[in-house]
Structure formats: C-alpha cells, structure tokens
Design goal:
The chain has 182 residues and is of the alpha+beta class. The chain has one domain (35-180): tt1808, chain A (Alpha-Beta Complex), CATH 3.90.1570. 23% of the residues lie in helices and 31% in strands. It has helices at residues 9-13, 37-55, 114-127, 177-180, and strands at residues 21-25, 28-32, 62-65, 70-73, 76-78, 82-85, 104-108, 132-137, 142-149, 152-159, 165-166, 174-175. It has a six-stranded mixed sheet, sandwiched between helices.
C-alpha cells in the first residue's frame, strides 16, 4: 500500500495561482467548484445583512466574505462562504488569513459541495472549535444554525418559511427570508 503525502499550510500557500480555489482537509488538497449564481446571491445577501448589523454597534466584531482562508491547523485550511469573528476572536485576524477558529462559519450548499459541507467540513469545523456553523440550503430555503457542544454540533435553530427569525450568535438580528433568498 502506497503512503500518501500530506500537505501543510506552507505547501498550500506555495501552490501556483492558477485561478482555482482549494482547501486543505487534514493534509489533502480539495479543489472547490465555482459557485453558481444563486449561491453568490445568497452569500451577498447574508454578508450584507450581517455586516450592517455588526457595523451598527461598536464591539460586535467583524464579518468577512469568501474567498478567505481560515487556517485551522498546519494541515487544515478551510474557506467558509461567510466568516464572523466576535470581538474576543479579532486577534485571529492576520494579513494572510483568519488563523484559528472563527465564531461562525457559514456554508451555502451547492450540488458539488453538499455532502462535503454536511459531513467532512462540519466535522472539521467542530474539531477545530468553531462555535457556530450555519448550513444554508438555497433550494430548500432554510438556514440551520448549529452550536458546538461536546465536540459535535447540535441544531439550535432553523430559519424557514416566511417568518423572520434570529439565528444565534445574532440573537438580536431577525433574518427576513424575503431579504435572504434571491
């Protein structure tokens, strides 16, 4: 049986800039497909809503938009669609990336990423201490807010239907489905 070569962040950072997006999952290089238009519209809507909320009051932290590396370890680098760091985690921001676990990672499901986002990336986010993980399903028009507990995620809240609802960690931000979905 041949041994496989595990890549590190240094290997990942040294990749040629070929116009493709990659992630590093426990030393394995993963090519990410290009997002479709619905995916991009949802990312833009969520980012705008959360950013306006964060900017409205000092001390709420920062929200960032993909592509952005979250260097979880020397062999795991993920690129959530939207990243939020509360005030206590702003120290993780460097010129190159978020260096550690953000408060919230948001992934918008795509046909090519669905299983990866729901299994592998969910496990990796939990393993590295991301407190909140939102899984956004544009087809079903749902957002599931998962909270990290005892090394795994528990579904804490769901946005669905037409009624606005706040999702943690933004308990004072009711999300209006009419402004989220394209």
């Amino acid at each position: 049986m041949a041994s496989r070569t595990l890549l590190t962040y240094e290997d990942y950072a040294a990749l040629p800039h070929d116009g493709k997006r990659y992630e590093l999952h426990e030393g394995e290089l993963w090519l990410m497909g290009a997002p479709n238009v619905r995916h991009q519209l949802i990312i833009g809507n969520l980012y705008s809503i959360i950013r306006a909320h964060v900017l409205a009051a000092p001390g709420r932290g920062k929200v960032l938009l993909s592509p952005l590396d979250c260097i979880m370890s020397a062999v795991t680098v993920l690129q959530p669609d939207v990243v939020y760091l509360d005030e206590s985690r702003l120290r993780l921001l460097s010129e190159r990336a978020v260096e550690g676990a953000p408060t919230l990672a948001v992934e918008i499901l795509s046909p090519w990423s669905r299983q990866n986002d729901l299994r592998l990336k969910m496990r990796l986010y939990a393993q590295h201490g991301v407190d909140w993980y939102w899984v956004v399903d544009g087809e079903a028009r749902t957002i599931d807010a998962h909270h990290l507990e005892a090394g795994g995620y528990r579904l804490e809240a769901r946005l669905e239907g037409h009624t606005p609802r706040a999702l943690p960690p933004f308990t004072d931000l009711p999300l209006d489905p009419g402004t989220v979905w394209p």
